[in-house]
Queue: 2 jobs
Job 1
Amino acid sequence: MSRSWVLLFSCWLSPVGQPRIGAILLIQYIQCMRPSEALNLFVDHFLLPEEFPPLEHRGVFFLGPRSGTKAGRPQHSLVEDHLILFLLRHIRRTLSAGERICTLRPLSGYAIWIERAAAFFGLSDVGWSPHSPRAGRASDLTLANRPFIEIRELGRWQCDRTLRQYLDIIGVAG
């Protein structure tokens, strides 16, 4: 799922009453997060640049502080995208500390909303899943000639082989 589809789906989700799912979709894509990481984000799982000046115009997500991550330990993800920083400021103003950004549970519920958005735009046969924003981000970065290691670090892939599978699958689907 490329950036333009993520943006379109996110915009569609808000007026149908699912702005938080739209926010999670954007965050997941731009930060190259696993779906479980994105769905488990709480309001207090990120720092904004103004909350910690040494970040210098960047924010940070703390992944897995409560439930762990696939790596088996808490991880972090730097936020440099201005759209995501804007969105996080809005989330901080409108939600309470300790509140989950997206109350949607389980992963199948997220999949249903991705399927609904795809169907609305006549794309039911594409087969996008909750992993598609992450794979799409990796593919978009590859097409933009970003170094492989940079993509791997952004998505916190544990091994090169796994990332190559994501890219190969998208290449074949493209």
Note: The longest strand covers residues 59-63.
Job 2
Amino acid sequence: FLMDEPKVAVLRHYASPYYDPQKAHEYYMRTRELKGRSTTSLNDEGKKIWSYTKNNIKSEKAAKVKEEQEKRDQKITELREKAEATKEQISSRLKELNEALTQNASDRKKSIDTDKDSDLEEIEKESSSQKERIDNKKDAEIERLMAIEIPSGLSKRVAERTAKIAKLRNDAKSDKAKISSDAKTDKASVRTDATNKKVKVSSDTKEEKAENQANAKSERAKVSSELKAAVKSVREAYKAAKADLDSSYEQTYQDEFDKIQSEYKKVKKSKKKSSSSSKKTSHPLSYYIRK
């Protein structure tokens, strides 16, 4: 009875979210070379299960690592886009400030020219007025002299009057020449003063623009520095996350391997005993079994 008892194959299915019996067999047939933990302690079924399970764990880990990489890359892209937008805002603000300075300088120069023209006109008007007064005074004095009747035959008195009139005209001419000369000097001074003022406006504007440029450059450098630090932080966070995944999945590998090893441990074959010793140690019921 004992000899005829059929051997019953116990079908056990390894329970794990990383294991599918049918797909495991297909995978095992495709790849026989096992790497990593030694499988010498596993039976053939255990090797097949471990090979497939390990691959699924590896795939899951790779997917999560890729997810972390995508998060890292997305964050870095966002940081760079934000930094670029900030730099564009800085450049735009710099352009606006410099355009405002240019317009302000232009307005100030126009104002200087307006004041200059007004001063020149005032000098010219005052000069003309002074000359007119001189001429009027001269003409009035000449008219007064001419109104004095000189009896005929007094040529000496006529000559004296003629000399006085000539002197009045020469003095008037000399006075007007001096007024013209003074007006010319005053006008030159006004023009020089206006030119100097406009040169200073240009110089001040140039300095302010240079200061704005330096400030913008400093701000852009700060943005670049902050971007570099932020990107470094994101990359370090990714490294930390990957290290956590490596550690976590290393434990998962070990846990799954330990479970498989406990269920599919290879049974060591015992050495065959000699026939003589076998007879000596045969079971007492073997005779009846053979019968």
Note: The mean pLDDT is 84.
